[in-house]
């Protein structure tokens, strides 16, 4: 068993595609019609392209909580609690943060030393916080 696709809920697929490709530097892999939305995935140019990140719409009306799409409620709850929805590993956190700041990325948490490495948290402009993490090298 292996992970092939994982997803992040987004409030706007087109805006998400621009952020994840033009700002973060991922590459679009798939863009297929999917029931009023798109099966829209990106991959990292630094990793195997068989691991895809699905930019999944948060507005599915079929699954609701108190009359609102459940994914949107879940996403908003995480965001308001300051909880990142996923983690992206980077080789050099300081360098990556400098690159992203030049591209106008908003940081919810500036780079800090943590157990096992360094982390920062960014806002993806699509309703999510994303943690960037650099592992501490032992030795």
Automatic annotation (TrEMBL):
> What single Pfam family name could you report for this chain, choosing any that match?
Glyoxalase
Locate the VOC domain: which residues?
Answer: 2-135
Origin: domain of life:
Bacteria
- SUPFAM superfamilies cross-referenced by the UniProt entry: Glyoxalase/Bleomycin resistance protein/Dihydroxybiphenyl dioxygenase
Q: Give the stretches traversing the membrane.
A: none
Keyword Zinc included in the entry's annotation: no
What's in the keyword line of the UniProt record?
Dioxygenase, Oxidoreductase
| Keyword flag Nucleus | no
A Gene Ontology molecular function term for this protein is: dioxygenase activity
InterPro entries assigned to the protein according to its UniProt record, in alphabetical order: Glyas_Bleomycin-R_OHBP_Dase, Glyas_Fos-R_dOase_dom, VOC_core
Q: Which PANTHER family match?
A: GLYOXALASE/BLEOMYCIN RESISTANCE PROTEIN/DIOXYGENASE, GLYOXALASE_BLEOMYCIN RESISTANCE PROTEIN_DIOXYGENASE
What is the protein name stated in its UniProt record?
A: Catechol 2,3-dioxygenase
Which species? Planifilum fulgidum
């Amino acid at each position: 068993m292996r992970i092939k696709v994982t997803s992040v809920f987004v409030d706007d697929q087109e805006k998400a595609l621009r952020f994840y490709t033009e700002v973060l530097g991922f590459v679009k892999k798939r863009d297929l019609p999917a029931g009023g939305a798109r099966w829209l995935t990106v991959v990292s140019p630094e990793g195997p392209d068989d691991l895809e990140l699905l930019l999944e719409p948060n507005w599915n009306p079929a699954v609701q909580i108190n009359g609102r799409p459940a994914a949107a409620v879940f996403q908003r709850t995480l965001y308001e609690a300051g909880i990142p929805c996923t983690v992206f590993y980077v080789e050099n956190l300081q360098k990556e943060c400098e690159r992203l700041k030049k591209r106008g990325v908003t940081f919810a948490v500036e780079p800090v030393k943590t157990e096992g490495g360094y982390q920062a948290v960014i806002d993806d402009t699509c309703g999510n916080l994303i943690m960037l993490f650099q592992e501490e090298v032992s030795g």
